[in-house]
Queue: 4 jobs
Job 1
Amino acid sequence: MAGEKPPVILEGIGLVREYPGRAGLLRRAQPNRALKGVDLQLRRGSTLSVVGETGCGKSTLGRILTLIDPMTDGELIVDGEQVDIRRHHLSRELRRKVRIVFQSPYGSLNPRKKIGDALGQELLLNTSLDATERRVRVGDMLERVGLQRDHAGRYPHMFSGGQRQRIAIARALMVNPKILILDEPVSALDLSVQAKVLNLLADLQREFGLSYVFISHDLSVVRRISDEVMVMNSGEVVERGTCEDIFANPSHPYTRQLLASTPSTDPDAIAARLARHAERRARAASQTTGDERD
Ligand SMILES: Nc1ncnc2c1ncn2[C@@H]1O[C@H](COP(=O)(O)OP(=O)(O)OP(=O)(O)O)[C@@H](O)[C@H]1O
Ligand SMILES: [Mg+2]
């Protein structure tokens, strides 16, 4: 479709992140440059995927974009506001604009905290809503992500993996962010559950006008959901473009290699695979009882 592109809501220019290296017997510590000058632009309401093999710097980039980690060098502009490089003086308002969802919500959800309290805490810290208002908002959001209001009284271990990921998404959305950084958000889930969570993310994106940075090593997922893709290798972007272009004409050898090493990046094959999987799950579910929903 022709027309003007939406405005850029998140921009990184020359992002560098160095971690301190370890010294050897006869050698001084060399810093490990996890990001070597990464540029990126995320447009409002769109999904930019970041792909690449393990250790290429995807999560490091995600943490910098979420303002969790400082960068060593570069410029970061969030919704028109330049971010202080060392993250001093970051306003609460700025932090609220970008939220992250990790691969394993088990790691990020406190096992001893009821999920209603975990979600409510976001509102307690960031809004002036009273307890009743917070409870209502938490219930609304749980329903919005496909759970039930009374799930607020449960602990994280009382949910399935897919449900926990829904909770993590709900928590990220409590303060009405504009941008979500999704770091391998479905990688730990079964294929059929993956599809449902991806559908949920797509619905939420449309409903709230959200912009996503979707970090993944799974190209079949990336192909389904991205507007633009950037391919990283060893802390550098080696190729970027629209999703169609990258998959139709990968120009960098690394991208070609990445595509070739993915079992199937053909959308019809993926749809068929998901359908087969869903069928198997449905058959298995009909043989057991239980009301768990992923
Ligand atoms: N806190 C840290 N301290 C030191 N080095 C780190 C730290 N976090 C990441 N690194 C290093 O930075 C590089 C990039 O790591 P990162 O976790 O960003 O990769 P990734 O692309 O997310 O990998 P994966 O696909 O396995 O999640 C790696 O060499 C890693 O060892
Ligand atoms: Mg990672």
Job 2
Amino acid sequence: MKKRLTEKISGSLMQEDAPMAKFTSFRAGGCADLLVQPQNIKELQDVLQVLQEEGCPHMVLGNGSNVLVKDGGYRGVIVKLGSGFDHVTVEGNVIRCGSGALLSAVAKAAADAGLTGMECLSGIPGSIGGAVFMNAGAYGGEIKDVLRKVSVISQDGAHLSELDTGSLDLGYRHSILQQTGDIVLEAEFMLQPGNETEIKEKMAELKARRNEKQPVNYPSAGSFFKRPEGYFAGKLVQDADLKGVSVGGAEVSQLHSGFLINKGGATATDIIQLMRIVQAAVMERFGVMLEPEVRIIGEE
Ligand SMILES: Cc1cc2nc3c(=O)[nH]c(=O)nc-3n(C[C@H](O)[C@H](O)[C@H](O)COP(=O)(O)OP(=O)(O)OC[C@H]3O[C@@H](n4cnc5c(N)ncnc54)[C@H](O)[C@@H]3O)c2cc1C
């Protein structure tokens, strides 16, 4: 298969036994059999078609800020979108960007153009593709509020199509992409004219709030658990007296109990064991099952 892939994409854009700790914000976990970085839509399409014909499992990776790869690694191919997916253009009130562009870069481009609507998303450390997949959100706003449409390619590389916001079924940390496996190529956002200085002040204020309330100096994947209906995950964890509880190098953050952090040298197994301890304790105390928001993949 690797030989077939080298006919489609430069060998320098492929890495065998790729350490996923390097590509994910938890800085933990095993290796992927192969990581490929297509630089444009044509290369991505070619790669997906080869993987489909070979029956090879694969997963697209954005900025790796919501993925944990188990220590046994990922048996298959991780497709990380290359620099050809990073473009951002502003035209009037509309922003078009590649799915590999970071939310922070898109929000900055919006602010520079005096467009409001993305301030609340600007501190989320994900790519546009990952943010649409997760319907990422913060401080009362989510991608859904500003997204107009996306272009996608099917998992097998066979079909290109456009989906408007309505057909993405965006809900709390959910999009239809989690069922279809379609890969986002580009996204279009509709914003409103605003005051550049005020927009930048708002972004700075939200950044300061994050730095104060979240353990930003430690590797993590943000809030580890989804918000259960009627509760806040972090509050449940705190009320179950789990703040500071650790397994190996993994710890329930002292600063924000919704975060599991890598204090240094954590393995994915440490993190997953800690997750289970937290889930069991919260279930016992409050009868609530905490579901991970983080996508956990790979082998034990
Ligand atoms: C410090 C910190 C703070 C965070 N704060 C927030 C927050 O406030 N709000 C919030 O919602 N999240 C937050 N997160 C979580 C994370 O940043 C978001 O979920 C983000 O949207 C993930 O984007 P990503 O590019 O890193 O995706 P990845 O982690 O790379 O991937 C996540 C999922 O998206 C899929 N995916 C990635 N790219 C594509 C694509 N092009 N097409 C289709 N599927 C794709 C992957 O296959 C995977 O299943 C935080 C994380 C950290 C580390």
Job 3
Amino acid sequence: MTEIRVLTDEAQFRAHMSVFRRAMHWSPPSDEQWQVIRPSYEPDRVLAAFDGDEIIGTASSFGSSLVVPGGALVPHSAISRVGVRADYTRRGVLSALMREQLSSLPDPVATLRASEGRIYGRFGYGLAGRWRTVEIDARRAVIPGDLTGRVRMLDQDTADKLLPELHEAIGLTRPGQIGRWAGWWARQRDRKTEAENSVTVVHSGPDGDDGFLTYKVTTTKDFDHELSIEDFVWANDDAWRDLWIYVSRLDLVDKIEIDLALDEPVSWLFEDPRVVRTKDVFDEIWLRLVDVPRMLSARTYGVADPVVIEVRDELLPANDGRYRVSPDGAERVEEPADLTIPVDLLGAVYLGDTTFSQLAATRRIEGTRLADADALFAVPQKPFCGTFF
Ligand SMILES: CC(C)(COP(=O)(O)OP(=O)(O)OC[C@H]1O[C@@H](n2cnc3c(N)ncnc32)[C@H](O)[C@@H]1OP(=O)(O)O)[C@@H](O)C(=O)NCCC(=O)NCCS
């Protein structure tokens, strides 16, 4: 009989981490790793499934914030460390954990990164944002013009101190971006130590520091140098362009790789746009609307005639109902619905990565007034988070 409990003490947190890591086919944390991971455990946000006294399944969340279309910042749960011990899978353990977690989350929205695409739709998560992985032929990459500001390299200690402050100061603007919590930065520092040769550079413009980039270069057995950009944050176009100039002019580098927003105009930087090649498009943000009325009111809408949307949510029935969405906002109504959508797919259209018309074409939703619904939910920028957790 599976029982779900909220964990409170440190010994249990470590057992929780060991079960999660085993589920991912990784070894339990060493003492050294545990020192780094331990502070990232947030009380009240750690769930475990028990068989008797043994932990057999895990889930947890981190308190953060999320940018929604229109720019509002909404309290957000970043869901992570989900795993079930291999000798207990496919017996409903994850389902029990998800039910308990959803009913107790303190925030109106949750997002996660999925190890597999078939796991989370049934729990109301929709694929809400994707990234593209691009590869740049650095030998042929020419960005015309000069830097407008200055780029300086930081030592690790300075970067550890400066980056969280700079990230906070730059702020969040693109829908899908999330606030980074203290435990995220601690893990990031650890990953950088693992990578050893990770390098951080900071950009400053007329008003001071306004962007940063973390990258690492690996050498292949053919002595090619491949640079991968691990973190790239900027406040304005000059910082963005200057950091690209810096990285594209580094000596010895043959290839640059980065995951970026689908609509980031990186090809237009280069004299020859063909130096930028899209290698892959992959799902990034899986989004769960935990409190549908609050989340529908949190974002802004485009110009179109109002549409009444009926939402179905099997796990959180308080969300069931009809919502009239107009350029002025969203409200619950009792009017007949123009279209009906399950909560996972409302999550998929919420940030603007996909549209009602696209979902209707695949027969995933039914209804009329699709063009108006598309126009209401249309966004000027594709969603992208850029913060892995
Ligand atoms: C993914 C995982 C957590 C699922 O746990 P579980 O306890 O087996 O899940 P449940 O038994 O509650 O399954 C619920 C439903 O989802 C389905 N399902 C679960 N995992 C699935 C998967 N990986 N692929 C396809 N379907 C899956 C089950 O078949 C079941 O369907 P049903 O209700 O129609 O029978 C577990 O397999 C695991 O730990 N995997 C490795 C670690 C991992 O990937 N963690 C997720 C990190 S994002």
Job 4
Amino acid sequence: MEAIPIDRQLGNAYQEKWESRSSVRTRPRKWIDFSQEGYFFPEEKQPLLLRQEIMGLGQRAKEKILLQSFLKYLNDIVSLETRLINSACYKLIDGHSGLHYNDDIKLGAYTVLIDEHYHVYVAQDMSLQLLSQFPELGRFDYPVSDAHYAVALIRQRMEAKYHDAFEVLAVCIFETTLVRELIEFFNSANVHPSIKYYVNDHMNDEARHYGFFYEILTDTWKRLPDDYQEAIGSHLADFIKQYLNVQSDKRFYADLLNRLLQDAKQSSAIVEDLYKGFEISPDIPMVKNVLSVLKKAGVLDNRHVKAGFQAMGWTL
Ligand SMILES: [Fe+2]
Ligand SMILES: [Fe+2]
């Protein structure tokens, strides 16, 4: 396999920032203070609460929905950060992918691995605190996230030699868009102070990861040979559409409602109705965000990438 050298330098500043500011180095254990008031998930971000028949179930039901939404959120963090991001970091480090990063980037990838394992630990710790405080919550069989589904689906559409580079780029896109979005989500009133504190700490690390992965995205893309850019680039539009999808949320909401209503058919009907007419389009803020990162990183200039978006009917 040909070696593709990627030589972006981060310099000492990145390492110094991590040494002095990373959460794992500097922050205490996250306890949830159950004596304080507040919802465990931002109410305006839970579309089930838009429905009159659900609000009619009362305050306890609302609190339960928000608690379960937070547990699902923590589960998503665990699955995204353990599998996809860690696997991409090892690809940066071991060189088996044919992409050869310098020692500076490899050291940075180790800091990300530590951070993400720490985030998973914190998310697990908080889930267990919640489950022991509210034993009636019970556990869920959570659906596969759209991010995982998108990587698995799009990977199949390209030859095996391009898989690793695609996975690295996919994670660069997650770390510069998805993760931030997930975290900024909690900047709203009435959210429990312990949860806000937790989310801010996570953001502290993810802001640094944004910088790291943005550099990797820009440099990796620029140095990929034409056949890689074509093989991966022609599927990027579809990948973006798939990973921003809401299939996983919809399935979770239907399961959650079914627990409250004890009626699977009615639960699915309510969720379908909530999302009637919803489509991933370039006007959605999250999509704009992704497109602007791809543009800044020079990915959108590629004709195969452009053609993919055009084929989807998106004018950029
Ligand atoms: Fe994280
Ligand atoms: Fe991260």
